[in-house]
Specification:
alpha+beta; six-stranded antiparallel beta sheet
């Protein structure tokens, strides 16, 4: 019996490891096709040797012109992130996801800040209205336009980009693709980046569905 126990244990461990890897891959590529996961996207050139890459996508049954306004107004102090507001606010984000397009939030330029939290922000690295938005946070980048780096930004052991790419899809639909890239700066960076990527998968899936529902007009209009 003992002779059989070892192979069974090894097989069980291998199956468990395979399940973890499969779940990780699915989390990092939710909704994305194989082609989308592999193709270059705007923002990739900022971190060409990223150690961790997550590409997620969704099809939205609305023209690109109806999707972009929801993307460009992302931000804790703007339209929110259309995700789990209550959960994010437990971390002090102080946001409320908008259910309407707000004209005052429709402009972003390179160098502008998109806040994740009152003390943490990403800078706009590239933007082409209606096509893509690329956000970037270097390990020691400031969360405000001037002054010393914030503690949260300075402590991050990785460089990070977050891209939003819109593509026209058949029948007046839109394909929205997001990509996160992590470039590790310390040997222990994966210990923080991997859990962040897991949490991001949950929040990003909800965000993509939130953008889809708003662009498709599924939500009640509130003023």
């Amino acid at each position: 019996m003992r002779g059989r126990t070892v192979p069974v244990a090894v097989a069980g461990a291998a199956a468990g490891a395979l399940s973890v890897l499969t779940a990780r891959w699915s989390a990092l590529h939710w909704g994305a096709t194989t082609e989308e996961a592999r193709e270059p996207l705007p923002g990739d050139e900022i971190l060409p040797r990223a150690a961790l890459v997550a590409t997620r996508s969704i099809t939205i049954e609305a023209p690109l012109e109806q999707v972009w306004p929801w993307v460009v107004q992302l931000g804790a102090d703007r339209g929110g992130f259309y995700s789990y507001d209550r959960l994010e606010n437990l971390l002090g984000c102080r946001l409320r996801s908008a259910d309407t397009v707000v004209e005052a939030w429709q402009q972003l330029a390179v160098g502008d800040l998109v806040r994740l939290h009152p003390k943490v922000a990403l800078a706009v690295a590239a933007v082409e209205p209606g096509r893509f938005l690329v956000l970037h946070a270097a390990p020691a980048s400031a969360a405000s336009g001037s002054g010393p780096p914030s503690a949260a930004a300075a402590a991050a052991p990785y460089d990070f980009t977050w891209s939003f790419v819109l593509r026209r899809h058949p029948h007046r639909a839109t394909r929205l693709i997001t990509r996160e890239r992590f470039d590790y700066t310390h040997a222990w960076s994966p210990a923080l980046a991997e859990p962040v990527a897991v949490a991001s998968s949950v929040m990003s899936q909800k965000m993509l569905r939130g953008i889809r529902d708003r662009a498709e007009g599924r939500l009640p209009v509130t003023l």
